[in-house]
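pinned: reference chain
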Amino acid sequence: MDTLSLMGAGFLHAMSPLNLFAMALATAVGVTIGCLPGLSAAMGVALLLPVTFGMDPATGLIILGGIYCGAIFGGSISAILIHTPGTPASAATAIEGYQLTLKGEAARALTVACLASFCGGLLSCISLYFFSPPLAQLAMKFKSPEYFWLSLFGLTIIAGVSSKSMLKGLMSGVLGLLISTVGMDPMEGVPRFMFGQNALYNGVDVTCALIGLFSMSQVLMLAERKIRARPAATKFKNKFALSFPEIRRLSPTIIRSWIIGNIIGILPGAGASIACFLGYNEARRFSRHREEFGKGSIEGVAGSEAANNAVTGGSLIPMLTLGIPGESVTAVLMGGLIIQGLQPGPELFTTYAGMTYTFFAGFVLVQFFMLGIGMLGCKGFAQISRLSDAILIPSIFLLCVVGSYAIHNNVVEVVIMLIFGGIGYLARKFDMNSTAIVLGLILGPIGEKGLRRSLLLSDGDPSILFSTPLCWALIALCALGLLSPLLMGRMERKIAGKAAAPSDRA
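pinned: its structure tokens
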């Protein structure tokens, strides 16, 4: 009954005029970012993170959640219209969506993408509501040794899965850990690696690091390539509507992709790019119209989009309950929580339960805004997708500088942002992992405190780190995290190969 009352109160708070306006605006911004090729959901969330500073925590998280959901859907617009996925999560959508565009059915393809994205995102909220509280209850049993292994697990899974090379991924995580030691020692209060800069008293500001790694690095990547005009977006000849038989035909695919995307989202390190190909592959496997695949299949579009949007709700579960982000976007969202003075874990479902359930309710309502904005604004977003890099580059650069300075009105933090922009750029050039660097920066203090407190309690005896069943369970997960790149890489190559086969034959 308490849960039901919290859910009801969450919807009442989320439906305040301010929150509703924030949802609409954030979703529109997210769709805009998503449909611009070269930009990503993580970059968009990181770029607008300073905007939420000083806001009510629930409102701030709702804004970031709206950008997240909007960007994932927005990637399908450019994928369908100009055969260029706005985000990696829409790569499979481009296979069938662009074929429909060539046949003069762009509006039909966008309608399917919008409806499937809405259903996948909305259904993912079910698991968000029902799986999060039990995991939070489990997290309440964690003590210092468990927190040490949990932080290590977060680093191994992300560093391994999100990088082409496990070694480079782990190197990225270690770099993040080293950076996390800057500032005052959490146990003894001794200054460490501050280089005489009082601005580093509390360590490297997470927001500046996020903006630099995900946004400024993207500016540098865009700036180094030749600026060229993007293809013209297709004009719509048919209406944005689906017949009842088409909706009935798509329903099994959407439900199947929702389950796939939700499971993939809950698994730390998997991400929407795997989910979209897996959803697409299963849509083709169970389809009664396999001959359409590679030539323009609405089931293929629905399978991909429902799966990648179902990831959004699922990926929030380990982040909110255990502090383990499922992908780069949730790593940035975790940074947003920390900025608000909140620590992911059981307290979000006890002390701050009101705020958490308001965010959940806002996440549900964002899906409806995404549906409305997507259906009404596709023509406008189609034109935005052609925006030149000559405009994007200075605009994003300006927002990065202003956002970093506005946090504490400190020029030093602008310099920190620029340094991390350079680090992020080099990380991309050398196939290292920016997400692992962020996680090292965030999880480093948690792991350090867990380890040092454990050794303090045991008078230096390391056996305390192996003293409980939970410790051994987390050790097993760490080992799985180190092995998962091999399994995930093989799965992604296999699924992507199968998904691309019909397109090649066409």
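why pinned: The longest helix spans residues 469-505. The mean pLDDT is 79.
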